[in-house]
Design a protein that fits this description.
This protein is 32% helix and 18% strand. It is an alpha+beta fold. It folds into two domains: 38 residues, no CATH class; 51 residues. It has a three-stranded antiparallel sheet with strand order 2-1-3, covered by helices on one side. The chain is elongated.
């Protein structure tokens, strides 16, 4: 995750604070706690998924992003076609070496 500089004061409570300040403080608390996740793309957005079957070997499939795919992003899921093609080439070469 990118470096950031905290804008809010932790545990600041006063009658004059705004909802926006509260939301920002909540998000910064999650960053500090390590519980904020930065998604690789929007939910429902298309991404490139590397899949394999016994007949064709590795191939690129286009799928819609969902939280279930978080664990495979960067390994078998990519946001750009170029990244997916590079990994596909690597996997195919690894299979050919066997």
């Amino acid at each position: 995750m990118k470096e950031y500089k905290r804008w809010t004061v932790k545990n600041w409570r006063e009658d004059k604070h705004t909802k926006a300040y509260d939301r920002l403080a909540e998000l910064e608390d999650k960053i500090d706690d390590g519980t904020l996740i930065e998604l690789p793309c929007k939910v429902g957005e298309a991404f490139y998924y590397l899949d394999a079957n016994q007949h064709d070997g590795w191939f690129i499939d286009i799928r819609r992003f969902d939280y279930a795919y978080l664990k495979i992003m960067g390994k078998y899921g990519f946001t750009t076609k170029a990244e997916a093609e590079a990994k596909l080439k690597e996997l195919q070469e690894k299979d050919n070496d066997r």
